Amino acid sequence: SFERYFVVFWFVKWSGLFLGDLKTQQESLTFVKRMMAVAVSSITYLRGIFPE
Predict the structure, then answer these.
(1) Phi, then psi, of 49 in degrees rounded to 5
(2) Given a cut of 70, is residue 9 above it in pLDDT?
(3) Which residues contact 17 (CB under 8 A, 6 or more apart)?
(4) Which string of DSSP letters, residue by residue, matches 2-45?
(5) Which DSSP category does 48 fall into?
């Protein structure tokens, strides 16, 4: 079904953005930066701060 395809696509897309195993300080810093970008992006979208 469409919902199942969408969930699988969404998971693969997001899991590719983040490393599964953080071994170094640089990997950890990159992870935190990406999480902050996702958080800010989500908040601005949900609050409608920028026009679409």
Answers:
(1) -70, -40
(2) no
(3) 34, 38
(4) HHHHHHHHHHHHHHHHS-SS--SHHHHHHHHHHHHHHHHHHHHH
(5) T
Average pLDDT over residues 12-36: 77
pLDDT tops 80 at residue 4 = no
Amino acid at position 38, single letter: V
The answer for residues whose C-beta is within 8 angstroms of residue 18's C-beta and 6 or more apart is 31, 34, 35
What's the full length of the chain, in residues? 52
Instruction: Tell me how far apart the alpha carbons of residues 38 and 34 are, in angstroms, rounded to a whole number.
Output: 6
Give the predicted TM-score (pTM) of the model: 0.57
